[in-house]
Design brief:
By secondary structure, the protein is mainly alpha-helical. The chain is built from seven helices and no strands. The protein is 58% helix and 0% strand.
Amino acid sequence: MTQTSTLGNKLDFASAQATITTENVQAHTSEIQGVLAGLICAGFPFEDQGYLAMLNDLFNNSEPFPAAVKNIVKQLFSELWTDILDDNYSFQMMLPDDDESLVERGHALGVWVQGFNLGFGLQQKDKPVASEEIKEVLTDFAEIANLSNEMEEDEDTEQAFFEISEYVRISALLCFSELGTLPINAGGNDQNDSTIH
């Protein structure tokens, strides 16, 4: 299995999914990253390691993940933080490469937004969502989750897929800007205010 990623040791979808499948964990890499992104964008703290237990519950019948899968989950969590906090908006969803079929990429986007809404809901369950804008994003994500079965392999659908993916990416960052909490050691002089406004 060759690494298709050009960014050093950054995870890529194909190798992550291959490992998860080999370890007999019934989970989709996009959905796992979606759940983690939903948690983080709804205010889950960087310092909290509780996300591993949550994902064990969701994807592995509450059993601990095999070591190789646990490492992937930890790397996904760490890379999400790095990318979400990056001023250049380098955050990307973990989806199959562009040379995969639109059906496959559409399915991956669908399970990503499902995962995001699930993670978001787990983190926000005790506090109502702040703004109408965020509520609208979550409603849109629920609708996007159902689109993936209707994918045609043509240029118009390819363009639509790109636009929807970009909308999802930017909307996730919007959720983080409203509800996310900065890592304790991030933000330099902003030690007293851990929330991004």
